Each structure stands twice: as structure tokens, then as C-alpha cells.
Amino acid sequence: MLTLTVNGRPHRVDADPATPLLYVLRNDLGLNGAKFGCGLGQCGACTVMVDGHAVFACLVPISVLPGRDVMTIEGLGSEEDPSPLQHAFVEEQAAQCGYCIAGMIMRAQALLEHNPSPSEEEIRRHMSPNLCRCGTHMRILRAIKRASQGTRFADADSEKRVVR
Amino acid sequence: MRRRIEPAVTRRHVLVGGGALIVSFALAPSSRLLAQDAGAAGPVPADPPLPGGLKMASNLDAWIRIDKTGAITVFTGKAELGQGIKTALRQVAAEELMVDFEHINLVTADTARTPNEGYTAGSHSMQDSGTAILNATAQVRELLIAAAASRLGVPVAQLSVRNGVVAAADGRSLGYAELASDEALGVTAKARSKLRDPTAYTVIGRSIERVDIPAKVTGGSAYLQDLRLPGMVHARVVRPPAYGARLAALDSGPVAAMPGIVKVVRDGSYLAVIAEQEFQAVAAMASLAAAAEWGGGAKLPSQSEIYPYLQSLPAQDDVILDRRQPMPAAERTLEVEYRRPFQLHGSIGPSCAIAQYADDALTVWTHSQGVFPLRKALAQLVNLAPDKVHCMHVEGSGCYGHNGADDAAADAALIAMAFPGPPVRVQWMREQEHMFEPFGPVMIANVRASLASDGTVVDWQYEVRSNTHSTRPGGAGDLMPSWFLAKPLAPTTPKPIPQPEGGGDRNAIPLYSFPNARVVHHFVPSMPLRVSALRSLGAYMNIFAIESFVDELAAAAGLDPVAFRLAHLDDARARDVVRTAAERFGWSNPAVLPRRHGKGFAFARYKNLAAYAAIAAEVAVEHETGAVRVLRVVAAVDSGQAVNPDGIRNQIEGGIVQSTSWTLHEAVTFEADRITSVDWSGYPILRFPAVPGSIEVHVIDRPGEPYLGTGEAAQGPTAAALANAVADATKTRLRELPLTRQRIKAAIGI
Amino acid sequence: MRAVSVALGAALLIALAAAAFLVWAARPAIAPIEPPSPADFSADLVDKGAQLAAIGDCAGCHTNSDGSPYAGGVALPTPFGSIYGTNITPDPDTGIGSWSRVAFARAMREGIDRRGRHLYPAFPYDHFNKLADGDIDAIYAFLMTREPVRATSPPNRLVFPLNARIVAAAWKLLFLRPARSEPRSDKSDPWNRGAYLVEGLGHCGACHTPRNILGAEEPQKALAGGEQEGWIAPSLDQDSPAPIHWTEESLFAYLRVGSDRLHGVAAGPMTSVVRHLRPALDEDVRAMAVYIASTMGEPAPERRSREEEIFASLPKGGSADAIATAEPAGSAADAAPTGAQIFAATCSGCHTNRSSRPLGGRPLVLQTAVALASPRNLIEIILHGIEPAESEPGEMMPGFADVLTDKQIAELAAYVRSRFSDGPAWSNIEDVVRGIRNGR
Ligand code: FES
Ligand code: FES
């Protein structure tokens, strides 16, 4: 039995200590956000935050996590009450299939917590571990910028929500 | 092909026996129902085809149901693949039913509930299902208004509709729920519908936010992978290291004794393991793989010789265009060859499926593109009657063609049959997806053209050589897991996909007005590597080749590439997208680009019958390394009536980024005995630092025009626009994809 | 009195020596020239220069990862502070556009820039001085035909007194000897070519030879192993720590593609060496492999039998060791239970043979980083991972600096060491982790 702190709440987990966090989040705690993409640390679909850092949940055994803060996308906000970053992703309609998006948001969250107004280049470099196959990158970049304090989007930029 | 309209009175209707009056409304010649109707007046042709997907299922209640509470449910046989149809189809239904968008529920592909619309592929969702729902909901609205007219004793013309309530001038009104009945909707669709006037649209044409996104950004249950059914167990498969290898020896005893292991499943060379917990299954899979000894396996051709090898394979030739007109004298002739390697779908989430065999019936949750064809193949695979197999589509990770979804469903079915009772979840590993998914096939295009002295193309000879672009099931033998069974099944003999859509020859016919043109498709049946449909099929390659060559011709004629295209284009809508993209890009801006920068242009109408797309790109090529930076991309697209303009933009943007990745970086790699590009380190795709600096998409709306499939429209033009831009920047033409740093560096020299 | 006169005499001598030194150290500027036109150089010469510049890894110090090629700005950490690679594009003001061929050759051989200033020995003129004239000409031709870029590197940040360039002159007085590479008649042509490239242009010893307290390579310990940027540069002589001895074939593969089936993956500073080496000719790379294989020599019989054991421990198909699950390889797991758990979740996905993973699945028993006497390289890799070149196929491993604590990394390293090497257990691993994190 291990105790994991996930999204601010302690959870008793009965699993082999060598189990990667991803499986425990999804199957034992019923959290959908972190996704299986490769299990190899190559795609970032499983990204969550541990003590404020973006990490690959597919490669972290739960044995190293007691006493540390795990944050998943469920901990940021909800459909009814989304976090600023989640809200920005909706505003920018930054998803196609959306499979990569929870990982994207968590990695971006880790960036914004350390650097509230990153430059375009800093965002791109920071987001590099996370893959998106649908090609939603431009919108993801816009959403992160929208959420960052550094950039305020003028209304003119939301032209796309105006009819034609 | 035309189909006869079925008799108007449905089977159910005959059984119920009542409501003939209502049906007669449906059959009555259309009268002007609503002031804002812009219905197609005039005599109905004798035997017109039903619009869109109505051809597949002609009962209105196959598409729409209204229950006693007024809840409206629309059914589509198409699946949400990340293209946003859950939103767009609701918009269509809300528009014609004149209800709020939020009022519409939508049920997608399910063999027990929805119409059979075959595959969700080829950018057909809006063309088929969108058109069907547009017409079906319009006809239902008419029926409901007619019913209200009869109940209220008021002529139709004096009724108005607002948000699902039909009202008379005197204030009396009836809601859809009161007006609807099985009888009302259980009728056969007509070929013509009274469609609303596009100028009065309130829902169609708006960039309504997608309904699925809030759950996806907050960790809601959104994917098949997120289903956790009661009692569910976890399975993993163990695949051979190479195509065709057979399991020679295996001691599965130690694995069976590992913690949580429920069962090791083996049938010939088919190997899988079931565990209580998911990571137990992963660990057991690894141990099984380590314990298994494999023998044999197909010899693959050498990767460096793959193009000569493809040329050497026997082919079936089909002349798909032979246009001869008197031609002015040719002044010069160019002849070149273009090549494209095997490429991957590479969904971010590897394939997954859940199956449960209980009470003699098999239930399958799948992210297949075609639940109905899959049901047929699975029934054959596990020897059940088709009506004992129920396939439900649940969203998976983005789908860009025939990936591992059907095969994973076959895995789940096979394992569930071997372990009846609980639901069995099978999740493929990344390596399994990369190695065993069917690739987009290798292709060669040979093209020769002649120019007259004034720079017009007077002769065009184009030959494309390719494997098939569809090995979808089909039969059970098209499901890859069946190949490893003790009694292996054989895949269906591959066949070319006929024109006008085409497979390897999709978009092989240029849209340009060349007076003499001959296009030949060399269909190569034998496949050294497993291949099938990858987003846009042969169009990616053919457009890359045609649009690269058009640039080469323009250069030979000393003409501007955009002007050269316009000079050979008659189609007004094609000219519009070309001009729009060029203008918004600033194509004719006289300012010279910085050194080592280049601009490129390309255009195509997908399949020559779907959306029009023109793309202009600016790149910078680093001389020292050959690395390409895509600085900006500007696209113009005409998808007919734009239901959700932002949805169209999203699809085009995504297509541009994906095609940029294909075009600059991607190729499946292999050695004599195996595929070597088995993960993202061996098959890198575009990452954030390398995605284009900016992408602009301009949607040209065509109110009232048919929907034109858009999902694949950007793939080909992006490839050619980039190749043309690289050629402009480096003054060297590359004709083999991908345009890697190494190839470019080799071409530009020290 | 006598003492006074001795002291006076000594002072006089020192003053004279200092004066002589200053005279010796003072070098004239060489007159600037108009940047030559690219057309002045034959294509063949430029080609040859490109191949040689690759072997010299000019880009390693002169191309910043996000900057223009050869425009400088790369920080080179040394024990004495940071030195910045300069702009060597033909820009006349900020690069070497105004350098004549003579000025360039003097810089390469004597470490003196066009204006007569002494260059720090971070620029390996102690190797480049072996270059043949024709090769210097070729490299000059190559650099002079690059895109001129206006860019000034940041000033060096060195501790006093090393921030005075005269110190570089003193260093040369002590350590720089004029040299020419003389072919040996008892060796093959490739060997001689390899010796010339490895000891001269390739300056392999700059990292792989130990340095004395003043930062000069110890000549009698050539290629006996050194350090660079916190990484161990393993010895390239008979004491090579590689679990399987290097052969000409394996060295060639390693230098050509950055990895070899029976060895590790180029990591740390070696990554860019291999990447920049790509334009070099196969025959030159092979010559270097021939020479290094000969400096390593034939393996002793004990070593051979140990290698046989390692081969036998690899499963058929040769890709890797069996998976570590919850209860892996007995004693190793007992010794480091946390390490075993971390290994199972974190490492086993790639470092086992669960599938055919031609680019992954590196068996750890074959890795030099695991076999070295120091855990430094393994820890560097665990902390920072391995990244392939952008958008190119290549080995890839994420770093774990953000999620594993120093202690956990130490436990993982201890587990890996005890399970995949028969070398003695590493000590003070946690300190090493902490040290690397703090830039030590
Ligand atoms: S699933 Fe964790 S990085 Fe891909
Ligand atoms: S939105 Fe589909 S993978 Fe990113």
C-alpha cells in the first residue's frame, strides 16, 4: 500500500510499487487525462505534473512518489469551471482528435507556472517532448500564448468565431 | 450508379397500419410550406437518386427520431475521427429542423442503431452523412409542419416554426414532440427536399465551438481507451518480429505463473496474454516476447532499391485519361520521375479495442472507421452469425486512414472468444502500431510534358505506379491477427479503387486544360510491405508530382508559377482559390525574399470532385545543413457550403502540419528481415520547434452549394508547395520524398 | 652582501627572462585583406575543406545550436571559466573575412590571431600544428566560402590571471612544441592517415587524454582517458573500459552513425562530434577507426573470456536482457530494491528485448557508461537523456532530472551497476548526482 497525493488529495493505492504512475492514474484512480501513447517517453501523451514539473507518467514508478504532489488535468479544472489554460484551449478550439491535448496542457501548465510570459520560441522548445499527429500545433501554441500573462488577444484575432 | 427509391410506405408502417394520412402528406407534391423556403420547385424527375447517405438508408427514422419529451436524436453511420463531425452534423440538423443547436443529440456509427454508411473515409462525412441529414431533417420538418396544419386546420403557409414549435397566427401551437410519431417519421425519404434558404441560416455557417472539446481538455471520458467496463480484464498481444515469422518454440509456463495472469492465449503463432491489471499484462507480454522463439519470415526488398524493385513488379495497366486534340507544335519537352516512400499513420494513441463474448454474442467497442464492414469480417473470423456481433464506434486517437483499429478489434474478438464472460481490453504497444499498421504505399510517378513556344502545355503524359490503397476488411483474412492463427486466413486479393475517386491514381488526372493528355495507372498487386489507405491515398503523391512538374514547366517557360496555373485553369472555383491564396500570401509582392528563402505554390481539387485547396508557402533553407524551416503557409479552400468555417480551418491547418511532416521527414525504414522504424525515435515526426511559423487558412464560402469533403484536401498541395519553395530557395529540384536535410544538402553541395 | 647580490642577480635574470618572453610573446598583426571572393577557390578544394572541417569539428565550438553556422557564440566550459567560440565566417568585421591565408595558418599552428593576440588553448592548436599545408589551405577555402554572418561572441569569462592573454603565451612556452606528423613506414596507409587525423585535425586527445594542472595534455598518457564538460572521455588505449572490445568495424559504425550494436550511443559532448563528422569521407573515418583500434590493441585472453560470458547472457537474437519485473534478477534487486522498481517502470521498456527495437533496446551490459569506474556518464544520461538531431531518426531517451531525486537516481545507478556490470560497486553516487546537478 502506498499513499499518493494526486490533485491535492491522498489516495491509498494497492499496486506493485514498480507500476508506472500512468496505469495507476487511469485504472486505479479512474482518471482519464493522462493517456498511453508510447510508454517510452517519446510522445508526452501521458504528461502530468510532479511537484510542478512536467513528467512522463508512463515512466515513473509509483514507488518514487509518496510525499510528492502529482497533478493531472483533472486537478486543473472541470468542464464547468475550467482553469485559464483549459479555457484558452477551448477558446482556440485547440484540438482535433484531442488525444494529445491533456498532455499538452499539463506540459504547458508546468511552463507557465515557472515562466508566466514565455516567448514563442520558449514555448516551442518547452513543448518539444509532446507530439501531436493531427497537426493542432498552431492552435496549441495560440492557446498557451492566450493563457500566458504576456499576451492578450485582441478581439480582432477571434475573427474565426465571427460568422465567415 | 442509380438506385430505385423504395416504396414510400415502410415495413413498419404497414405493420402499424395507421397514420396513412400522414404518409400521404409525405407523398403529396410539395407545396410551399414556409415563406423562407427556397425549395426546389418544379416537377420531380422520374427516378432521381437520393441525396448523400440517404442512398444507403432511405428511411427517415433511420436518421432522426423525436421522442415524447421532444428530445431529438440524429443518427449517423459515420464516426467522429477528430474531424469534428459531431458538431457539424448537429449544426446541419438544427438548421433544417429550426431548433437550437443544443437540442440535437447525435448517435454515431453503431451496428445496432445507426444507418450503415460503410466507412468514414475519403472526406465523405459531410458529403454523405451531412447531405443525408440535411435532407432528412428538412423532410421531417415538412412532415411535422404538415401534420400541424392538419391538426390545427390551418394552411401550411400560415404556420411558422420557432425552436421546435409550430405556431399558427392565432397563437395556437404544437411542439415537435406532439406532432412526431413513429408513423410520422417512418417513411422513406424523397429525392428532393424543401431546404432552407442559405441566406436565412442561423446555425450552419457559424463557427460553433466543438461539442467534444470541453471533455477532452478536462479529462472527461472521451475515448475508447477511457472505457472501464465492470469486470474488465487487460490483454496484450505478442507479435512476431517480422512479417510471416512463425512461433517455433515457447514455454509459457513461467509467464502463466506471474502475478495477476489470467490466461495465456495461443493459437498457432497467435499469442496473447490476459491479466487482471494492465501493467501485469504489459510485464507478462514482455516476458512472453522474451520467451518466444520465432522462425522464418518474409524477405523484404532492400530499402535503397525499393523504387527499381517497384518498377520491376508486374502491374495491371489502366488508361484513365486519353484526351487528344489538335495541338500546336511542341517546342520543348521535359521528362522526370517523382517518388514517395512508405509512410505511417502513426496515431498518437496506439490501437485499442474491447470485446466481450457472453450469451453467444460478441460485443465490440472499436475505433474502426467502418463498424458494419468490421462486423462482417469479425463474424467470419470468430464464426458467428453477423447478427450475433455488435460493433460500436467509440472515439479513439486521431485516425488518418486504415490504421490498426480493425486489427485491434480482431485481437479483442479472438481473445474474448478464448476467454468468455468479462470484457477484454486490448491495447497495442507503440512498437506494434508502428510495425504492423498498414502503411501508405511507396509510389512512382513518371511524367513527360511538352510546351509550345508561348508557354502553353500542349501534351501531358503521366504514369503512376502503386500498390493498392485499400486493404480494408473485406473478409476476415484482411484482419492482420488472422494471419498468425494455426489455420491462417488469406487476405482478399487487392484491387484498384476505380475512378473517379481512384486509389493510387487518385488525383492523377490533372484539372488543367491540357489539350493532349494521357494518364495511366499501373496497379501493382504484390505488396512487399503491408499497405492500405493513408489520408488522401494516392492524391498526396499525384498532387506532389503534378504540382511540382507544373512548376518545372513554368520555370522552363519562364513564367510565374501562379500565372502559369491560371493560364491552364478553366474551373472558376479553382481559379478563385488560386487567386485568393496568392493574394493573401502576397505572391506578387515585388520585394525580393531574403537569401536562401523560397516561395512555393500548389493547387488541387481533392479527387477532382471534393474541396478545392490552394497553398502558398515560404521556406528558408540553411545552406550548411540543408535544414528547411517553414516560415509561413497561406491556404485558400472552397468546401462548398461551409457548415462550420472554423472546423474547416482546423482540418486544413492540421493537414498542412501533417503533410509538412510527411514531406520533410517521414519514411518507413526496413531491413531484409524486419521493419526498423518501430517507434518515434526511428520514425520521427514534426515536433513543435519545427512546425511552420504561421498558418493562415481562408475559407471561401459557397452558400447553398453541396458540401465538399475537406479532411484530406491539404495533403497533396502542401507537399508540392513545400517542394516548390525548396526548389526556389535552393535552385535545385528534389523529386524524391521526403525532402530531408541530408537529401537537400546532397543536392545543393558544399 | 652575498645574499643581496644573489638576489639581485636572480632578479636581473628574471627580469631578463621576462623581457625575453615579452619579446617572444609579442607577435605582429598581419595586414587585413579584402575578403576573398568564393570564386577564388576551386570547388574541389572547398569540398576537401568541408570534409576536413568535419573531422576538425569546427562547428562544435563555432556553431551555436540556435545560431548561424560558424558564427560562434558557443560557450566552452573549462576548469578556469568559460571561453566562447568565435565567429569564423568570412565577415570582415566580426569574423575572419580579413584574414589572409598566412594569418589563418598562423592561427591554426601557433594559436595567434590576425591581430597578433594569443589564443587560449581551448582552440586546439597543439593538435592543429600537425596539419599539412594543403589541408590548412582546404579548410581556409571552405571557411572563406561560407555565408558571412555579422555576429560577435560574448567576452570570455575566465578567472584572474587567466583573463590576461599573455598567460596563453606563457602556456605555449611551456607546452606548445612545433610538430609535423611523420608517416611510419612499418604501418599501413590507412593507419598513417588515421594517426594524422586522430592526433592532428581530429584532436581526439583534447578530450581523451588526461591534462595536467595547467590544462595541458600529458604527452606520455596520450588517449589514456580524460574529461570534458563533466563527462568522462573513456580511454582509447588498452585500458578501454568498453565491455566488448572495440574493433575497426565497431569504431567505424560508432563514428559514422553515433552508435554501434555492441557498444553504446554517442552521448554528451561526443554527440555533436559524431553529428559534425557526417560530411567526412568514409575512408577518412575508417582510417581513424583503424588507428584507434590499434591504440587499443588486441584484447587479453581474460577479457575475451569475459566477453564470451556477456554474449552468452544475451538472449538469442542478440537484442537484450530479459525483462525486470517486480521480482527481477535476485541479488541486484535485493541490494537496491528501489533501484529495481525504478528500473522496471522507467528503463525496462527500452532496455529489454520485449520487441525488436533496432534503435532502442540497448542492452545495458554492453554500455561503457555502466562499466566505467565512475558513475558520472551514466548519471549524466539518466539526468538529461539523449536527444536525436531535430526531426531525424536516432537514439532517444528522456531525462529524469525533474522527477527522480538525487537519492533515487543514486539507487537506480547502483542497481544498474550491480546488475549489468561486474565492476565494483560505485561509491558516493548521490554526491556525484548532486555535484552534476550543481554544475560540478
Ligand atoms: S506515453 Fe509517456 S511519453 Fe508517450
Ligand atoms: S489533436 Fe490529435 S493528436 Fe493532437
Folded structure, characterized:
The complex is a heterotrimer of chains A (164), B (750) and C (440). By secondary structure, chain A is of the alpha+beta class. In chain A, 32% of the residues lie in helices and 13% in strands. Chain A has helices at 21-28, 73-76, 84-91, 101-114, 120-127, 137-147, and strands spanning 2-6, 9-13, 47-50, 53-56, 69-71. Chain A has a five-stranded mixed sheet with strand order 2-1-5-3-4, sandwiched between helices. In chain A, strand 1 and strand 2 form a beta hairpin. Chain A is globular, with a radius of gyration of 16 Å. Chain B has 750 residues and is an alpha+beta fold. Chain B contains 19 helices and 26 strands. The longest helix of chain B has 28 residues, at 125-152. The radius of gyration of chain B is 28 Å and the shape is globular. Residues 1-45 of chain B have low confidence and may be disordered. By secondary structure, chain C is mainly alpha-helical. Chain C folds into three domains: 20-175, no CATH class; 189-296, Cytochrome Bc1 Complex, Chain D, domain 2, CATH 1.10.760; 314-437, Cytochrome Bc1 Complex, Chain D, domain 2, CATH 1.10.760. In chain C, strands 1-2-3 form a three-stranded antiparallel sheet, with no helix packed on it. In chain C, strands 4-5 form a two-stranded antiparallel sheet. In chain C, helix 4 (101-110) packs across helix 6, helix 8 (189-201) packs across helix 12 and helix 18 (406-420) packs across helix 19 (429-437). Chains in contact: A-B, A-C, B-C. Chains A and B meet through helix 1, helix 2, helix 3, helix 4 and helix 5 of A and helix 7, helix 9, helix 17 and strand 26 of B. One FE2/S2 (inorganic) cluster sits between chains A (95-101, 132-134, 136) and B (82, 348, 398).
